Amino acid sequence: MVGIDLKGRTALVTGATGELGRVMARTLAACGADIAVHYNSNAAKALELAEEIKSTGRRAIVVQADITKLDDIMAMRDKVTAELGHVHIVVANAVIQYQWTSVLEQSEEDYRSQFESCVLQSVHLAKAFVPAMIERGAGRMIGINTECAMQNFENQSAYVAGKRGMDGVYRILAKEVGASQITVNQVAPGWTISERDRANGTERSEEYDSRVPLKHRGTDQDIANAVAFLASDLAGFITGAYIPVCGGNVMPGI
């Protein structure tokens, strides 16, 4: 059976200290990749995660950056390249958190934060890392989107606007860099069970679960598995895809 082998590759995961990001980082490392653990403010968690990864025999470093600022992203690229070598896999997972409310009540700043952390992060990461991928004729750009981008429920407007803008960037980037054998894809989690849910005993939601064809929420590991697949040679002919990992709760049409 063919497995996922990322040995000899370096992966950057933005927002790696988050509930989903840390499992992505661990999973990519388990597949053999060296990991750049990005954080914005949680240095302690980033260092803990990097040490955990290094204990498995992989290389890992921590990198701090404001993902909404191009200068920060460029400095992060330089640090990762100097310490781990060229980045083969970029996972854009970071997003600014905010309080959801209606369009009429949502602040302008919340729309701006989602544009900056979804759209501009994607653009900045491309500008920083894609040129070297083009030179090598290979690379993986993976964005973490959301099922919300297809649902368009009440109170989601800023988040959905940011993620739908991100979707446009990724689809166009896929066409622009495909000739260089760089794939550009998105994983769209549903409402996902994380370490916080396990600690709090909140894995089940009858209302949500009843709407999902598989009748339960997915896990952080389910999301990380999809990321690892897209990062691997097994997904070498998949690009421009938006892949929901939500038990069928949303299904893109054709």
TrEMBL record:
GO biological process: bile acid metabolic process
Domain of life: Bacteria
SUPFAM superfamilies: NAD(P)-binding Rossmann-fold domains (SSF51735)
InterPro entries xref list: NAD(P)-bd_dom_sf (IPR036291), SDR_fam (IPR002347)
Keywords: Oxidoreductase
GO molecular function: oxidoreductase activity
Membrane-crossing residue ranges in chain numbering: none
Matching PANTHER family: OXIDOREDUCTASE, SHORT-CHAIN DEHYDROGENASE/REDUCTASE FAMILY (AFU_ORTHOLOGUE AFUA_5G02870), SHORT-CHAIN DEHYDROGENASE_REDUCTASE FAMILY PROTEIN
Similarity annotation: Belongs to the short-chain dehydrogenases/reductases (SDR) family.
Protein name: SDR family oxidoreductase
Source organism: Paenibacillus sacheonensis
Upper lineage: Bacteria, Bacillati, Bacillota, Bacilli, Bacillales
